[in-house]
């Protein structure tokens, strides 16, 4: 009887490892994957560095801008010539340190308290050393002239500090006559109101005007009742 034929195949041994993984330790990362990961992180690192630089530059600029500003003294309310300054007259406003060497910093407020002002000044005026001291009304080259005005010859709310244009209105007063007005000039003249007296019994007010000396002389020579006042912007033409 013939011997049975064996169907057992000889063992071929363990499967051959792929060449690409030959000799690689288990768990080792691929060099290609490592390089790709590093390349992906580079743009984020650059972006982070740029953000840090931008923030630092912004902080430096902000510090410099704030550092150049310093509280300065301004008038919190109008003051008249000869008024002695009190703490209630002053307030602080942050301004550039190079606004002017004559402007008084808030830290030097004690040096101006108790001093008189040499001029009548409106609220909001920057306080400088030049406006302090003995009264300077009128200042050199200026004159102060008083004129009586009735209703309709000046704005009803006229007050010290208002800039006005003085206009001749011949024939409006009973005292007007031919040749009564000076021939040197017929105006108008620009002036600043430095005082307003209460109305008198004849319903007229006395307004004190500051203007160049020659103009003040001309206005003073014009008979009462022939002048009117028009409020104009400060620094505007007459």
Summarize the structure.
The protein is an alpha+beta fold and 238 residues long.
Could you list some keywords that capture this structure?
alpha+beta, Type Iii Antifreeze Protein Isoform Hplc 12
Topology overview:
Blueprint: H1 31-67, E1 69-75, E2 90-96, E3 142-150, E4 163-168, E5 189-196, E6 204-212, H2 213-220, E7 227-231
Antiparallel strand pairs: 1-2, 3-6, 4-5, 4-7, 5-6
Protein described:
This protein has 238 residues and is an alpha+beta fold. The chain folds into three domains: 29-65; 69-131, Antifreeze-like/N-acetylneuraminic acid synthase C-terminal domain (Type Iii Antifreeze Protein Isoform Hplc 12); 142-175 and 184-231. It is 19% helix and 21% strand. It contains two helices and seven strands, in the order αββββββαβ. The chain has helices at residues 31-67, 213-220; strands spanning 69-75, 90-96, 142-150, 163-168, 189-196, 204-212, 227-231. The protein has a five-stranded antiparallel beta sheet. Strands 1-2 form a two-stranded antiparallel ribbon. A hairpin with a 7-residue loop joins strand 5 and strand 6. The longest helix is centred in the N-terminal third of the chain and has 37 residues, at 31-67. It is elongated, with a radius of gyration of 44 Å. The protein starts with 30 loop residues before the first helix and ends in a 7-residue tail after the last strand. 16% of the residues are buried. Residues 173-184 have low confidence and may be disordered.
């Amino acid at each position: 009887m013939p011997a049975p034929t064996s169907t057992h195949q000889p063992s071929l041994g363990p499967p051959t490892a792929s060449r690409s993984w030959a000799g690689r330790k288990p768990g080792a990362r691929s060099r290609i994957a490592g390089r790709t990961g590093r390349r992906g992180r580079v743009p984020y690192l650059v972006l982070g560095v740029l953000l840090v630089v931008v923030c630092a530059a912004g902080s430096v600029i902000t510090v410099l801008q704030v550092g150049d500003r310093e509280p300065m003294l301004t008038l919190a309310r109008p003051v008249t010539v000869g008024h002695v300054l009190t703490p209630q007259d002053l307030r602080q406003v942050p301004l550039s340190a190079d606004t002017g060497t004559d402007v008084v910093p808030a830290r030097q407020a004690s040096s101006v308290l108790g001093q008189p002002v040499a001029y009548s000044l409106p609220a909001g005026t920057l306080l400088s050393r030049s406006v302090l001291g003995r009264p300077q009304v009128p200042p050199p080259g200026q004159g102060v002239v008083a004129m009586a005005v009735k209703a309709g010859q000046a704005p009803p709310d006229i007050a010290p500090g208002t800039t006005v244009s003085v206009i001749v209105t011949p024939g409006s007063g009973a005292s007007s006559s031919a040749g009564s007005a000076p021939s040197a000039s017929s105006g108008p003249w620009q002036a600043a109101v430095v005082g307003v007296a209460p109305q008198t019994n004849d319903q007229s007010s006395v307004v004190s005007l500051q203007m160049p000396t020659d103009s003040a002389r001309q206005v003073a020579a014009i008979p009462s009742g022939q002048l009117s006042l028009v409020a104009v912007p400060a620094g505007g033409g007459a």
